[in-house]
Amino acid sequence: MKRLLGIILLIFSTLLVLPAWSMDLAPDRLVDKTVQEVIEIIHKDEDLKNGNKEKMLDLIETKILPHFNFTRMTQLAMGQHWSAAAPEQQNKLVDEFRTLLVRTYSNALSSYHDETIKVNPIASLGDRVETTVRTIVVQGQGKQPVPIDYSMEKKPDGWKVYDVTVGGVSLVTNYRGSFNSQVRKGGVEGLLKTLSDKNKSLEGKK
Question: What 3-state class would DSSP assign to 75?
């Protein structure tokens, strides 16, 4: 799942920080337009293919983060415990969760091996401000295709991802279980410490 989530992040990595066209495109077209650009960058950039971690992290920090709503992702992952956190704790939780996702999946970005990503068009959005963009990752010979769904919401500066479901497993739901367990054991501060310690350990892995 981590490897496929790396591909997910990489799909959005060629979007420059809030380009004008990304604000106007429908969510399915936004995803579809970037797929070919991403594939081209993977094939041309030897550093990315060779797993240059610093370059990968810089790529994520500068080009991916603007297209994900990490506040909503964190809120959903916290579930009922979100309201128990003070505003300062909520801000720290968002920062730590964002860092965790970036560092956990940065290594997976170099694992692309000619998978084909097919985006299913959305028939009509109407006035909806939330939707799901459904895609299929077609892997190598003998491997089953993997469905990847993006839960997206329309914001003033374009469509944002707030959850990703890989093969029926929601990223937010997957973390909610572990977050709830940590909060029950040590409260919100206990969860913050766990996330901070995990991020420090990931940072040390060069």
Answer: helix
Contact, 44 vs 17, CB < 8 A?
Answer: no
Domain residues for 30?
Answer: 2-203
3-state secondary structure of 13: coil
Question: Which residues on adjacent β-strands are paired with residue 165?
Answer: 149, 170
Q: pLDDT digit string (tens) for 46-80?
A: 887 777 777 777 766 766 677 789 999 999 999 99
Residue 86 one-letter amino acid: A
- Report the candidate in 14, 59, 29 with the shortest Cα–Cα distance to residue 152: 29
Residue corresponding to tokens 């992290």: 57
Q: How many domains does the chain have?
A: 1
CB–CB of 81/26 below 8 Å?
no
Q: What is the CATH number of the domain that holds 60?
A: 3.10.450.710
